[in-house]
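pinned: reference chain
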Amino acid sequence: MNDILDNNKIKIDTLFKKNFKEEMTEIWTRKNTKLIKKILQTLSLIFFLKRSVYRIYNKLTKYDINRFLNHKIREKSVLITDINDCHGEVLGGLCYYFLKLNYNVDVLITNKKAKEKPLSMAFNKKINVFSIGISKYIKAMQSKKINEYDYIVFASEKVYFESDKFGLRDVLDFIESDIKKEKIIFLNHHIDKIDDFKKKEYKNFALKIMSDKDIKTLNCCYFGKNKKRIKNKKTKFIIIGSSDKNRRNTDLVKEALQKLKRDDFEISIIGKADFFDKRIKTTKKRLNYNQMYKKIKNADYILPLLDSNILSHKRYINSAVSGSFQLSLGLNVPIIIEKTFAFNHGFNSDNAIVYENGKFLEAFIMAIEKNQRDYNELLLKLEDLKEKITNESLNNLKTALYLGKTNDK
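pinned: its structure tokens
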């Protein structure tokens, strides 16, 4: 009997609480109906204005496919394009070469890449920059308008976010565009992936320095003119990118920090660090290209941390290019590099600090202790290498375009 009474009491209490809560809610709602309406109206207005402003912004700025499809292509124009969000550092060099050859340049990239400002170091009014989403990018590249350009230059030959059983997909297979073959130019990042068909049918260039007679160098290491710099009193090193062991061996730095008790240096890392030391400065927020370039220019040396003992690094000997190489050349910041990787990319003891495998610590100390006069010599030789590579690349492009025009006739 008591159990029944207890259960009924619980039910009554629950019902009372529920009714009380509903009544209070109703009273509060009645009292504040006007306030709620005002809030909802304000939110609706904000949402409407935000959506309207976004649409207008899209129409007036580069974030719109119609702006690209409807713009008039100028005489003697090239389209430099990339579907990937990475490797924005090569775009400036490509623009530089075609501008030097008196072409007008249009650039079509993804919205994400555009927001990171890869072309923030403006050249001149001959460059138009457009950016759109990936699905619209494919639509744009499939339009008839594309063949109105003299040339279409793909800044990457592969699609890095799409792969099949054979590896990374070719960009032409992915976009399924009917671009005329004679208009296509590839900047190849993966030299070992260029097959005989591609060599024969398209104009192919290699980002790295090449001796192959079939593939010429088009090294995009131009980021504008560099000002004369003075070595920092506290030597500054910089690591560009993540601590992924497949790309760089940060153990080299960890071991050096453990052995060195001195504090006349610091190491900046653009990306996440997998270790801690008071001499390490990490960049927590993501930098756009212009911010990254400024930070690198403030450093005395770049640390690519390539290690010939690691299998995945061996591709950088002959067939791949590290972004650190391009940035060293383009921004005139010397690199500290293992000898195994140096010579195929133009680096030697005159323009870089080159060390034997297992001798990273000695090279690191040498960099710290290098005086201003010797450091200046390093900068001059590095600038000479950049000039040699850019001149060779420009001549390679000029020759290929001239032969292409001759063959078309």
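why pinned: Residues 79 and 171 are 15 Å apart (CA to CA). The domain at 235-388 is CATH 3.40.50.2000 (Rossmann fold).
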